[in-house]
Amino acid sequence: MTKTILILDDSAPIRQVVGIALRGAGYQVIEAKDGIDGIEKLNGQKLNLIITDVNMPRMDGITFVKEVKKMPRYKFTPIIILTTESQDNKKQEGRAAGAKAWVVKPFQPPQLLNAVAKLILP
Q: What local confidence, expressed as pLDDT, does residue 24 receive?
């Protein structure tokens, strides 16, 4: 069964790179350009994982994570934060919000796929 991953990033090139890596590994990908777009894309469908940027217009990634974790349907959906932010206080904020992993840009696709594989159960 195909696993579905939602990626949120306000940068189209980043969404494209992440999307290509994930699709190449056999995942189905839904793209959103910010937190609000991401919330709208959730619409009750089954997601196996969410990858979100931190710095986005309209709704940032950490706020998005907090909102998702309030929804019973997505409460246990693993979330990876993919960002240029590498400060420990940001990472702690992400973990406190409910993110399971933190990948810093620029990233290597194998590094991202490795994090994804660890969080998506077979």
A: 96
